[in-house]
Amino acid sequence: MRPARFPAVLAAVAVAVCLLPLARGADEPAGKPAEKPAEPLKIAQRTVASGGVVVAKLSNGLTVIVKATRSAPVVCVRAYVRAGSMYEGRYLGCGISHLVEHLVAKGAVHEGQSPRQQDTRSRVSDIGGQSNASTSMGRTQYYISAAAGRAMECIDLIADWMARPAITEEDFRREHGVVQRELELGKDNAGRQMWYAHGADAFRGHPAAVPIIGYEATLRKLTLDDVLDYHRRMYVPNNMLFVVVGDVDVKAALERTCKAFAGFEAGRLPDLSLPPVKPLPGIVRTVRPHPELKETLEEISFQSIPLLHEDLWPLDVLSTVLSAGESSRLVRKLRRELKLVTSISGSSWTPAWGKGIFNVSFRSAPDKADRAEKAVLHELRAVVGQNVSDDELARAKRQMIADFVYSQQSVESISQMLATDYLSTGDPGFSRDYTRRIQAVTAEQIRRVARKYLTFDRMVVTRLVPPGRFAAAGGSDKAAAKSSAVTLELPNGLKVVLNATDAVGLVSMAFVTKGGLLAEEARTNGIGGLMASLSTKGASQRSADQIARFFARAGGSISGACGNNSFYWRAAVLDDSFDEAIAILADVVQRPTFAEKELEILRPIRLAGIDRIKEDWFPELQRFFRGEFFGSAPYGLMTVGRREVVEAATVKQIAAHHRRCIRAGSSVLAIYGNFDVEAASKRVRKLFADLPVGQVELPSPAAPTVPAAGRMKVLKTEKRIAAVLVAAPGMKVDNLEDRFAVTVLDTIISGYQLPSGWLHTELRGKQLVYVVHAYNWAGLAPGAFMVYAAGQPEKAPEVVRIIRRNLKKAAGYKPSQDEIDRAVNTILTADLLGNQSMSDLAMSAALDELYGFGWDFRSKLEGLYRKVTPADVARVGRKYLGGGLLTVVTTPQPGLVEKGQADE
After folding, report:
1. Whole-number pLDDT of residue 871
2. Taking the CA atoms of the chain, what radius of gyration do you get in angstroms?
């Protein structure tokens, strides 16, 4: 398959993410005068590939790719090093590539500036960017995304990380501890442990079988000298790739790159050779217990091909036919008809370095796992024995084209695809050609590769089971100016936003209506989620299968969901399928059939989702917090629902809930993409004319209260880690007077979307947590300001004390204007980067209109944030954080927390 894609299980666990820590300064004394700047590098070779992609080779061997895009005023700068877990040589199994990743982007020294000026987090904050790094089997990557006007600063910063990192003993001790905590945290992650077990069997004897993060014992033994030795060997410019994508001038970006990497000399290329992947000896089966599981997880894999192989395209189409979308064979048969699984997916993963795997994975009730495995193998044998149908083939090809079109909407995804294509094949346009080659695949070719690679006497089967089953189992203003939105209101009160652009070949639709959890109480909790999901499984004269088949052919999708404050439906298709897609969306919203058969397919899936809450620390912590903080109010519930409600729900109850909740006066429809506005306006008026008039009646719960002295609640859990959440009563979403100042304060305390700030610096610096973050939850009813963290149980009491101390500090804190400006830059950049796709833009516009701010509210954000003053931040700090705090802790050792509370 094209290298930008990964199998679902691998994508979830094979990239160990480093949330960049706050730098502490470099080794060099601050007073040392700057050396004479080195001469800029020269461009030794320059080519222009398809799509205007410029590929340049610099005089030190560094390869640079630059692509200008004008869809949004943003930029993404990436650097890749061919330094992944497979290439660690004598350090294999130590996780040293991942540890170096944590250290490299820490505190680079820029020429002409002292280390005191080089605090990495300050530089990222000054740029207003989002920055992160990750390590995989074959490479380590670093990136920063920001507004296009900061592109040159982004180039400088990433270049400094690559060419001039400062790795000190203090930094090593801190991050060495952090990655050990990360490894411990991963033990509770069933998906991660599944891949470790499955990968070990699929690639036995090969470096790909080793976990990226390493093994506990060998990781612990690493020293600073080991890190410096590995870094010198791998981090040379001729072993790197540098990528710039966004609203930039190509020539200026290349010139800045040549200057930024001046003095970075070529080195000896490291040995990147790998042994061949050994053939499977037969059926390799492993069954393991996992303490947090309620369901059974299973992976079935067959050995296949490397990336550059003639069978790549038919194998990828076969995988799409089998498992992509509601109408695919495995989803339709096992989940919908036989009801044996709660989820099922597949992939054809073909790495550049050796044989890959053709994979099917599923989750099921433990007592259905054996039957599910047999059914999967039965369906796989069917494609060996008979050609796929013309309809299946056409739908698969359409979906794969759509995947490519959707992937071209953001600078992050474009830059990642160009880099991955180049590193894997030497051709940055491989993915574009890939979609063309897909169209030539025939049914006969698919059957041929199925016979060749689906070897039922040589496969890897890995199963994770619940412990009790083990024995038995054996845009910005610039962007807004390019669009011309039309708004209208139907006679029944429905508000509509139509925003057309020819920049993309697709259309995205979002229908939102007030309700969600606010329309439920304990005895009905879960009905809303069933209603929204079930509505897409049959509407008007269309069956669930017909709807699924249409969206598969249209290269799109449709979904319905229940949120905290609203119900929402989202649909997206390639632009030539818009007319029928909007008709189906109108039926789904207004005329769902709520078939009994479909409910019985959906019910076990929803119940499995409820049971899954206890598998992971964060949803478990959220459920505990909500119940303690909001009590019997709607926000005290979870959107997935209560088991007893979902078990007993009837189609009559669900239909009644739909009739009560869906009202035109409480709803907004937003459509973004490539369509004719006048024609769409006429269709919308006709299709949504039957939507009931009026507004939905929702309760207005009072704000939660916490005693001035605070309150603590502890829940015993069986997990290895402890999770902490500290919260204060919050605001409603329409409190704009306070909301923007609170968000600025939140960013100063803990960062915005990506962690930084006081809490991250102190808690990560002391190796007390793996993750910590704060956020302001504001809804149609009063919400909360909260901080959450996860770490080792014995450190939970100290984590609680530090969080509460920092929140009390925030209650009396008055920041400087410079701090506010940096925070606002970060917030605005995150908003730009998070709203690039048509789907995101449509959803954002619909919700902003629904809440009364206007569909174009995003275009006003910068002005509103720039008005925030130090006095405003100090005022909201006192108002929201000056009272009592609720602290909830989930931990396997509650006695430690209770003792720590008594000692305070």
Report:
1. 97
2. 27
Q: Are strands 240-246 and 63-68 parallel, antiparallel or unpaired?
A: parallel
Are residues 553 and 389 in contact, defined by beta-carbon separation less than 8 angstroms?
no
Residue that is written with structure tokens 């170096």 in the block:
100
User: Hey, what are 642's tokens?
Assistant: 């209560």
Q: 826, 848, 844: which is closest to 835 by C-alpha?
A: 844
Span of 170-174, 318-322, 443-447 with lowest mean pLDDT:
170-174
Number of other CB atoms surrounding residue 477 within 10 Å: 13
Which of 617, 616, 626, 666 has its CA nearest to residue 777?
626
* CA distance linking residue 250 with residue 155, whole number of Å: 13
- Collect all residues with Cβ–Cβ distance below 8 Å to 822 and sequence separation of at least 6: 122, 125, 126, 128
Distance between CA atoms of residues 117 and 378, nearest Å:
63
What is the CB neighbour count within 10 angstroms for residue 467? Answer: 12
Q: Mean pLDDT across the stretch 654-662?
A: 97
Give the pLDDT confidence of 147-192 residue by residue, as tens digits: 999 999 999 999 999 999 889 999 999 999 989 988 988 888 898 9
Amino acid 111: pLDDT: 35
DSSP 8-state symbol, 39: P
Return d(Cα 422, Cα 418) in angstroms, integer: 6
Return the pLDDT at 33.
40
CA pair distance 212, 135, nearest whole angstrom: 7
pLDDT of 10: 38
Bridge partners for 786 per DSSP: 727, 775
Look at phi and psi of residue 238 and say left if phi exceeds 0, alpha if psi is from -120 to 50, else beta: alpha
**Token duo for residue 400:** 């794969």
End-to-end, the C-alpha distance of the chain in Å comes to 58
Residue 778 predicted with pLDDT over 70: yes
Specify the pTM.
Answer: 0.86
Phi, psi (deg, nearest 5) at residue 592: -65, 145
Show the CA angle centred on residue 768, arms to residues 762 and 772, nearest 5°: 65
Q: Which helix (H) or strand (E) holds 571?
A: strand 566-574
Could you count the other beta carbons within 10 Å of the beta carbon of residue 614? 16
Specify the pLDDT at position 485.
87
What average pLDDT does range 874-899 have in this prediction?
A: 93
- Chain mean position to CA 163: 29
Contact 63, 57 (CB under 8 A): yes
Domains of the chain: 23-30+38-260 (3.30.830.10), 283-472 (3.30.830.10), 478-687 (3.30.830.10), 711-903 (3.30.830.10)
From 331, 297, 294, select the one nearest 601 (Cα to Cα).
Answer: 331
